[in-house]
Write a structure and sequence with these properties.
288 residues; alpha/beta; Protocatechuate 3,4-Dioxygenase, subunit A; six-stranded mixed β-sheet; five-stranded mixed β-sheet; elongated
Amino acid sequence: MRNISLDNITTAVLDTMKDASDARFREVIGSLVTHLHAFAREVHLTHAEWNAGIDFLWRAGRISDDKRNEFVLTSDVLGLSSMVDLLNGSAHGTESSVLGPFYVEGAPLLPVGASIVGDNGGERVLLRGRVLGADGAPLAGALLDFWQTDADGQYSQALPDKPEFNLRCRMRTDAQGRYALQTVKPRYYSVPYDGPVGDLLRAGARHALRPSHFHVLVTAPGHRPLVTELFAEDDPYIDADAVFGVRSTLVLHFERRDDAAAAAPYEVEAPFYDVAFDFRLGAAEASA
């Protein structure tokens, strides 16, 4: 087209994709182009601002590697990751929350009641509950994958002197759908702040902190996989999560227990925090 103008450029771009065989591709990319062009018009985007945006993307690519994805982090701090979770969560199960950049596949498979404390300091926690189907029936053999920070707010990737799977494990529920895990109370932490996302947060006068939480990935045959987080209600950042992952149904009370009698059934040393939560999985056929 030789007569491109402000009035027809959006249509011209959309026309180039009209013969794409994938209808969903045409819908998604077409809408993206339409909104991008509308955004540029609305703010009257300057060359300098456009260049700053391109430079942000270039630097995000430069800093990303197999342990850090700055594009995912960008999606997180802009609320897009949580938006996708909210749009695609199951209406019949536990609410989902962001996966985050710190998941590691292949954590050791441990029995119900096992401890992942190791040589980590901090307050002891017993995290326990059940995995249920949408109908409330317990799911035996469901697989839970746990990961968390230590008591100083550090994931294993930042602790070269710790084991690769520090404060990580997988566990299958017992015949009654129960799980139980001995661990330490995690601490709030900062998302990476030394790259372009940090620049974005500083420019917006925003902090980079996330409230303390346990990450959990739950799977069972015939059910939708669940990626979620469990938060401590007393965390100072519970109402100010930098990546918008908190859901009220996932905010839990940490019940402190000081007596040995309460600890004995779980083979936990007192004092400890007792945290109970039942996961509910939606049926796989509901995933559409």
